[in-house]
Amino acid sequence: MGSDPDSSMKRAATYLARRALTPISGAHISREKGSDPNFIPTRKKGSDPIFRVGTYLGVLLVAAYCLAPLAWQLVTSLRPPAELTTLPPLLPTRITFEHYAAVFTGHPFPRMLLNSFVVAAGATVVALALGSAAAFALTKMRARGFGLILAIVLATSMFPPIATVSPLYLLINALGLRDTLAALILTYAGFALPLAIWVLTSFLRQLPDELYSAARVDGCTPRQALVRVILPLAAPGLTATGLLVFIVAWNEFLYALTFTATERSRTVPVGIALFPGLHEVPWGEIAAASLLVTVPVFVLVLLYQRRIVEGLTAGAVKG
Amino acid sequence: MAAIGFDGVGKRFGTVTVLDGLRLTIAEGEFFTFVGPSGCGKSTTLSLIAGLERPTSGRILFDGRPVDHLAPRDRDVAMVFQSYALYPHMSVAENIGFPLKLRGVKPREIGAAVAEVARRLGIEALLERRPRELSGGQRQRVALGRALVRRPRVFLLDEPLSNLDARLRLEMRAELKRLHAEYRITTIYVTHDQEEAMALSDRVAVLNAGRVEQCGPPLELYRRPANLFVAGFVGSPPINVLDARYVPDLALPQGASVDDVVVGVRPADVRVTAASDDPRALAAEVLLAEPTGDDVWVVGRLDGQQIIGRAPPDAVPAPGSTARFELARERLHLFDRTTGRRVA
Fold first, then answer.
1. Using the 8-state DSSP alphabet, how is residue A314 labeled?
2. Cβ separation of A210 and B98 shorter than 8 Å?
3. Label partner for A8 (CA 20 to 30 A): which of A30, A217, B202, B344?
4. How far off is chain B from A216, nearest CA to CA, in Å?
5. Structure pTM?
């Protein structure tokens, strides 16, 4: 292999280029592989101090950019009321938990949390059930127009929410679902379906078709094949998709604001937005509630980080 | 157990014709093999029998009754796939018991049936393992067990041995033959390996481009190939095809001339010696010799045509020398030069 003229030319060129870039003093040159005649000494990237400092600086910048608002929320939530709208002091002179207490005493916060949970979980279940059935039909039952159907599915997710919110409001009203959790579950599941179908389709595509054939011959109806063979094997894909849907539904604000009217169906994002009273904006309570509602999502993501990445990159690499 | 009939079965995928008017009957209890090069339609044939595909035209009959409206589960057919297609999330016992579970058999009876099949296949010790913990040969046995456990009417095997190494393949081949003798289930086998087909089957159908070139017992295919394709596909090393003008004193059928036919002769029917007293033996330059143990295959060149013959291992003509190739006159096959059909 190495003997063909083209590759040996390339190797010579790389060698010259690397030698030109390597200081002759050789302080960073690794000589461990000296016995290998093809070995070309290079500096390891990781041991280059400038490269390392640059990497950490970059990471620090991105982290600061992402975490600064959260840090400010944390600081605000712990600040005594008197210091809320004054600067300095940058950091609170004393730490107080009264805002956290107020979130639970002054507002129906547990009820809102429960609503949010029911809505997010409900939307996730509906989206997974319909999405996996659709992905199954598309990949294993050889539905006609595979590409076209996927394109249409993707196209439906292109509408900006603000364009659909008024027609949907009329629809929800006509169905008598205004101010119910069902309205939000249906809406979120609908908007999550394209994502669910796409991610699950790429997952199911990786399962060999012979497994489905074997299940059919062994005596499964298509539905039994889906439930007993395909879905158990697609569990990682279902977890990833479910988490993505859950997080989107948990954080959604626009539809929740529009379709709910009372605390019966209000979710946390809407509830927090309605904290401000007639005379004052309770910044401390808003900050405390915002942090509290981030915690479940934060924990979920930490637990299933790998699965989520798998879900987003499914089908990209075999494996 | 059932007899399978193909009544003009055709299958097209889009514009590609995979099967073209297949017409044959497989007898009850028979071991029947479809053999052919890749893409000849043999795997599609199995899918049609199993009900995984529907024919574009014609009918498939089980014991004389059409089954085309039946779903796979209602045909009582079992299948072993090339990749084995074991369920990775189930243990070996669950894999084998799965078809029974779907039919609502009681757990205790499933356990007994699984144990019985596992005993016959020699995999009792593996029942609690997962498929990924098994070797290729073990997976193969589990796949067989899953197919045999419910005593299906028809047993379909799609290239079941192609993923095994050579030694294991021979072992499993014998095992398959034993299982067929024991269970007597109508078995339809698909392979591209003509040797496997010959060794296992009661009858073989040679498929080419969606058509049956010839169908019959293995020896008949070997001794009386119906055309050049079958002659070339069956037998190893492949049959010699010679221009009829090079074969002296050829007995031609009435009305045919040497220009109309080609001569087929199996390497096993060609004796190679350094000197021969047969005046009709062909003189050819020896290119190389391939020892196989009992015999040596000698490859010779005759005016640009290749001819392979058999020589005893202690009298192999040296490459480069000229040797005599004696054709067994009673075993010559004559084929029409243009159509490839057998003429004598």
1. T
2. no
3. A30
4. 6
5. 0.77
